[in-house]
Amino acid sequence: MVSRKTARIIQLADALSGRRVLHLRDAAALLGVSEMTIRRDVADNPGQFAFLGGHIVPASEIEGDAPYELAREADSHAAAKREACVHAARHIRPDETIFIDCGTTLEYLVDLVPENYSITAVCYSLNVAEKLTHKPNVRIVMLGGVYHPSSASFSGNSGLETLDSLGINVAFLSAAGIDPARGATCVHFHEVSVKQKVISLARESHLVVDLSKIGKLKPAFFAPIGVFRSIITEEGETQLPGL
User: Fold this and answer.
1) Cα(14)–Cα(157) distance, rounded to whole angstroms?
2) Inter-residue contact 91 to 68 (CB < 8 Å)
3) Other residues' Cβ atoms within 10 Å of the Cβ of residue 128
4) Residue 214 pLDDT > 50, yes or no?
5) Are 94 and 54 part of one and the same domain?
6) Could you say which DSSP state residue 169 is in?
7) Using an 8 Å Cβ cutoff, are 217 and 181 in contact?
8) pLDDT greater than 60 at residue 67
9) Structure confidence at residue 208 (pLDDT)
């Protein structure tokens, strides 16, 4: 007789074969179990499933070249990321359009958008978009294109063309590394064109990172430090050492 856990794994695999991406909440409802049970099932079967920013994807879709594991990164320096976003949230103003970058740091910024603020939020990652859907007064503009499971984000000409039609007041950018000489870098090259386009269009851009990113250099360069209005960390909106 097939065990309950085995039956769940089979059901989950079948669901992903058609959808490719399944939110944790939807998976729990589909299988009639708790989200914690689904988390354990995914963790126990790394050869079949991967968990990215609240979404389950087939493990085969994770990019194999030094993948950026969104779920693991979400737990890294969480308190520092949250505190950096507390400082960044001061730049959110009602009736404006903001851009929220991909990654795990700026998820916390979404939580800090005041409920009574009517704003337009532009994003290109599933984890950020999902959080924005819970904000009643936020109009969401989701940039499309090719989906990249490694960062739960999209890239492509369609998204860049959408940006041309938008007026962005404030852009909040994330980075995986900040080097005093080389500038802001990220892990994935597919993010670069979106970040650079946004920086060129936004009235003001802010780099929001935790201090663990300082001094690191990642493979994909996207901007010199001087293009940002400010660099915001858990210590506040201050000039970083050596920059």
Assistant:
1) 32
2) no
3) 25
4) yes
5) no
6) S
7) no
8) no
9) 96
